[in-house]
Amino acid sequence: ETGVTQTPRHLVMGMTNKKSLKCEQHLGHNAMYWYKQSAKKPLELMFVYNFKEQTENNSVPSRFSPECPNSSHLFLHLHTLQPEDSALYLCASSQERAGGPNTQYFGPGTRLTVL
Amino acid sequence: AQKVTQAQTEISVVEKEDVTLDCVYETRDTTYYLFWYKQPPSGELVFLIRRNSFDEQNEISGRYSWNFQKSTSSFNFTITASQVVDSAVYFCALSEAGYGGATNKLIFGTGTLLAVQP
């Protein structure tokens, strides 16, 4: 595997279900990100992890719970979601160092539908 | 506040035409970075280019070229001799420089859907 991978690619869940999205990066990067892409809205940054520590939570509802066990893996745990949470969830990674932001590389995304 | 505006929601061209995608940004920082990404129907955002605010040289990569003008806060993207495979949503993004190793945050525009007809 190369680059950033995400599983599953498609997910349909009911509002009472609990599910998890998985992201894995094979680039040796130290930062990982979750973005939400809804129809006709800009990509929204949700969470940022730098060296496994969460450095950004962009006012995301608690029904979304991220987990970063190591620099290569990132999870997004979902529970009691709402239909408006249906979106494409994109994971990205980058190699961060002092002096400026570096390019984020994205995975293919998980298309989530909440019924 | 940071903001990226892509005023063109959709553009349709015929194959072999040239097309320019506009991007206008707002930032108070003197050091910042601009990006273009391509999102084909498969969904993955593909990185195209990264520029920092100190480098105003235009760049060409094959059929792609970028025009960065600080005076107008624009970073436009031109595809020469467009092809059907260029059909995608194109996003412009802005990031201010991190300090002390702070992780960057990308601010995206709303994207431009480019449809290249055969």
What does this protein look like?
The complex is a heterodimer of chains A (115) and B (118). With 115 residues, chain A is an all-beta fold. In chain A, strands 2, 4, 5, 6, 9, 10 and 11 form a seven-stranded mixed β-sheet that branches. Chain A has a four-stranded antiparallel β-sheet with strand order 1-3-8-7, with no helix packed on it. Helix content of chain A is 0%, strand content 56%. Chain A is built from no helices and eleven strands. Chain B is mostly beta strands and 118 residues long. Chain B has no helices and twelve strands. In chain B, strands 2, 5, 6, 10, 11 and 12 form a six-stranded mixed β-sheet that branches. In chain B, strands 3-9-8-7 form a four-stranded antiparallel β-sheet, with no helix packed on it. The mean pLDDT of chain B is 90. Chains A and B meet through strand 5, strand 9 and strand 10 of A and strand 5, strand 6, strand 10 and strand 11 of B.
Percentage of β-strand residues of chain A: over 45%
Number of helical regions of chain A:
0
Radius of gyration of chain B: 14 Å
Based on helices, strands and strand pairing, what is the structural class of chain B?
mainly beta
Name the chain pair with the biggest interface and residue counts per chain: A-B, 29 and 30 residues
Quaternary state of the chains: heterodimer
Shape of chain B: globular
Low-confidence stretches of chain A are none
Helix content of chain A: under 10%
Helix/sheet category of chain A: mainly beta
Number of helices of chain B: 0
- Taking the alpha carbons of the first and last residues of chain B, their distance comes to 41 Å
**Total number of strands of chain A:** 11
Q: What is the first-to-last residue Cα distance of chain A?
A: 32 Å
Highlighted features:
heterodimer, A: 115 residues, mainly beta, 7-stranded mixed β-sheet, 4-stranded antiparallel β-sheet, 11 strands, 56% strand, globular, B: 118 residues, 6-stranded mixed β-sheet, 0% helix
